[in-house]
TrEMBL record:
Alphabetical list of PANTHER family matching this protein: 1-AMINOCYCLOPROPANE-1-CARBOXYLATE OXIDASE HOMOLOG 1, OXIDOREDUCTASE, 2OG-FE II OXYGENASE FAMILY PROTEIN
UniProt KW keywords: Iron, Metal-binding, Oxidoreductase
Organism of provenance: Populus trichocarpa (Western balsam poplar)
Gene Ontology MF terms: dioxygenase activity; metal ion binding
Required cofactor(s): Fe cation
Record carries keyword Transport: no
Family: Belongs to the iron/ascorbate-dependent oxidoreductase family.
Name this polypeptide is given: Fe2OG dioxygenase domain-containing protein
Length: 364
């Protein structure tokens, strides 16, 4: 028992020492480390050995072309059918011709790099673990509760409702962050229309119940890892929102769990990755699925990604979400109890990544 307590105490001390640098994982790399600190080691028994990586080309990741979605009703119908199929069977898909110029996507990725690669003292101004703030920079939101620490730093911005004042945003990425957030909100509204139609509902249904009311933009930075065989990957998880729009660079490494196999999400130039979140699975009563995913560690780096979460994480709201009544019948009874977004996210965060899905705890 003593050794277990000592080990726990040592880990807490190491985590605290790392956190207090306020320099994140990038700070370790900048210091020239050649060996990964043990708090970042993912033990082999942490892997589910029943799962394999699909390498035989068996699966073709869905890519949906949105060209003509607002002009051609026949084209729109076909797109809705593809969105329905991908949301039911994959929980993930990529979109092209989504309306956001490639130049904006590239500048957004550059903006992320500028933030992380600026002087550490400038970054420290935004360092916090107070998740009521609209701008937060740190490494691992569940640093003190997770069994293994992920080789990743994150800066997050709550951009809707009630975005920060421009001067509250880092100068290194201020302009592009505001431009990109506006563009993603427009795309998110379109995607929610398509998902509503895919459920057989009015196009505005999901927007009318505030699924597009909130937007959090999480900018991840994965420095090159000197020992990726020890850090393995970021912890597997599903997202705790309604919908996620992900911009990833060309390094790749994102994998999703599909038919009990890990499948690569290809870094298609100009494409955005879309995935269903836990709350969308809950309100669709399992019609659409929120799928576990992770990012493999790499020695190339830095890998950057921008994950935009449609959810009112921090906004107090009396609205309860449960399986949509329009989808229920005697053959399709509700599978989940009602919850608020805030309560679901609080439970998700308290549970931490890498354990069983938080969604299971809301099953009836």
């Amino acid at each position: 028992m003593a050794s277990t307590l000592d080990s726990s105490s040592d880990r807490t001390s190491e985590l605290k020492a790392f956190d207090e640098t306020k320099a994140g994982v990038k700070g370790l790399v900048d210091a020239g480390i050649t060996k990964v600190p043990w708090i970042f080691h993912h033990p082999p028994d942490d892997l589910d050995k029943t799962l394999i990586v699909a390498t035989d080309g068996k699966f073709r990741f869905p890519i949906i072309d949105l060209e003509g979605v607002r002009k051609d009703p026949f084209q729109r119908k076909e797109i809705v059918e593809r969105v329905r199929d991908a949301s039911e069977t994959w929980g993930f898909f990529e979109v092209v011709n989504h309306g956001i110029p490639v130049s904006v996507l590239e500048e957004m990725k550059d903006g992320v790099c500028r933030f992380y690669e600026q002087d550490v003292e400038l970054k420290k101004e935004y360092f916090s673990r107070d998740y009521t703030r609209k701008v937060i920079y740190n490494s691992n939101f569940d640093l003190y509760t997770a069994s293994s620490t992920n080789w990743r730093d994150t800066v997050s911005y709550i951009m809707a409702p009630g975005p920060p004042m421009p001067e509250e945003l880092p100068a290194a990425c201020r302009d592009i962050l505001m431009e990109y957030s506006k563009a993603v909100m427009n795309l998110g509204n379109l995607l929610l229309e398509l998902l509503s139609e895919a459920l057989g509902l009015n196009p505005n249904y999901l927007k009318d119940i505030d699924c597009a009311k909130g937007l959090a933009v999480l900018c991840h930075y994965y420095p090159a890892c000197p020992q990726p065989e020890l850090t393995l990957r970021a912890t597997k998880h599903s997202d705790n929102d309604f919908l996620t729009v992900l911009l990833q660079d060309q390094i790749g490494g994102l994998q999703i769990l599909h038919q009990n196999q890990w499948v690569d999400v290809p870094p298609t130039p100009g494409a955005l990755v879309i995935n269903i979140g836990d709350l969308m699975q809950l309100i669709s009563n399992d019609k659409f699925i929120s799928v576990e995913h992770w990012v493999l560690a790499n020695c190339k780096g830095p890998r950057v990604s921008v994950a935009c979460f449609f959810s009112t994480f921090l906004t107090p709201s009396p609205r309860f979400y449960g399986p949509m009544k329009e989808l229920l019948s005697e053959e399709n009874l509700p599978k989940y109890r009602e919850t608020t977004v805030r309560d679901y996210c609080a439970h998700y965060n308290e549970k931490g990544l890498g354990r069983t899905s938080a969604l299971l705890d809301f099953k009836l």
